[in-house]
Specification:
CATH class: Mainly Alpha
Membrane topology: Multi-pass membrane protein
Structural class: mainly alpha
Order of helices and strands: HHHHHHHHHHHHH
InterPro entries: Mem_transp_PIN-like, Na+/solute_symporter_sf
Number of helices: 13
Distance between the termini: 15 Å
Family: Belongs to the auxin efflux carrier (TC 2.A.69) family.
Number of domains: 1
CATH architecture: Up-down Bundle
Mean pLDDT: 84
GO cellular component, one term: plasma membrane
Largest sheet: none
CATH topology: Na+/H+ antiporter like fold
Subcellular location: Cell membrane
């Protein structure tokens, strides 16, 4: 519970600051969203790829697990949307909130506390795979429906180039002079509080309510996702710490940055914001149970 409080209470505080700042300072959400998508988060991904010490084999296994879990969840959301005749806008929101766990600013500190530094290294790789889904594939799903539009969206976003830069620095073992790697670190770390400020600004104008959509998305995110992660991990041969990290990262509440993408590329932003808050608070109940099970 201490780890959960340490991860969640800072989030709540910054969200409150964002809500207050949005009211008093007349900040522009669109400008802040573009700052994260086009500058700050690409820096975070490059920095993570540049500094990790994991073997390539372990990295590829975890990344495979991330993508297979997301595919299964995407199929489930599509089936639910078709069965209940959900509108396109809400369907996009359900995809965003279901596929993307908050495995950065919540998952990383929780896993470091529960599983140590070795678990943290694996959690970072999961976060990178999730970032590819969130900032490369998800914008294409939200903004375009055909291959041409999807490719155009992907190539316009800098994250794909940030990934290539990080991989190049890692493979060629390039040492950046004059502590220039600190530029990546500082920019990347600043993406999380700004995303939380945007969330607070959005929630200030949102009437919080729990509908069947939020309950459906929360169930898929907090219950179905870790069960799917267990099955997928077993199938692809993950064991021990690798499997524990895959399950725990998959069990995190909805990622903060989904509200940024929904505002930028499409989706019901209010519904996304409500789901983020609901899953975050419900995770107080679900994550201790999952920690007990995986240990």
């Amino acid at each position: 519970m201490t780890a959960l409080l340490s991860a969640i209470l800072p989030i709540i505080c910054i969200v409150i600051i964002g809500a207050t700042a949005g009211k008093k300072l007349e900040l522009h959400k669109t400008t802040l969203s573009k700052l994260i998508i086009y500058i700050l988060f690409p820096a975070l991904v490059t920095d993570s790829l540049y500094t990790t010490n994991m073997s390539n084999h372990s990295m590829l296994q975890i990344l495979l697990g991330v993508f297979v879990i997301a595919l299964v969840l995407y199929i489930l959301v599509s089936l639910f949307s078709k069965y209940f005749e959900i509108s396109t806008t809400i369907h996009k929101s359900l995809i965003a909130t279901t596929l993307h766990p908050n495995n950065g600013n919540m998952g990383l500190p929780l896993i470091e506390f529960a599983l140590g530094s070795s678990g943290l290294e694996r959690a970072v790789i999961y976060m990178i795979g999730s970032s590819v889904l969130l900032f490369v594939i998800m914008p294409a799903l939200l903004a375009g429906t055909n291959l041409k539009n999807s490719l155009q969206v992907i190539l316009k976003l800098p994250l794909i180039w940030a990934m290539l830069l990080g991989i190049t620095l890692r493979v060629l073992r390039i040492e950046l002079p004059f502590n220039l790697y600190e530029v990546l670190n500082i920019l990347g770390r600043s993406s999380i509080p700004i995303a939380l400020i945007i969330l607070g600004m959005e929630l200030r104008s949102t009437t919080f309510k729990i509908t069947n959509l939020e309950l459906l998305s929360s169930s898929l995110r907090l219950i179905a996702a870790p069960v799917i992660a267990l099955c997928v991990g077993k199938i692809i041969g993950l064991r021990g710490l690798d499997l524990q990290v895959l399950i725990l990262q998959s069990a995190m509440p909805t990622a903060i940055n989904t509200v940024v993408l929904s505002a930028e590329f499409g989706g019901e932003v209010n519904q996304v914001a409500r789901t983020i808050i609901l899953t975050t608070f419900l995770s107080f109940l679900t994550l201790p149970i999952i920690l007990l099970i995986i240990n």
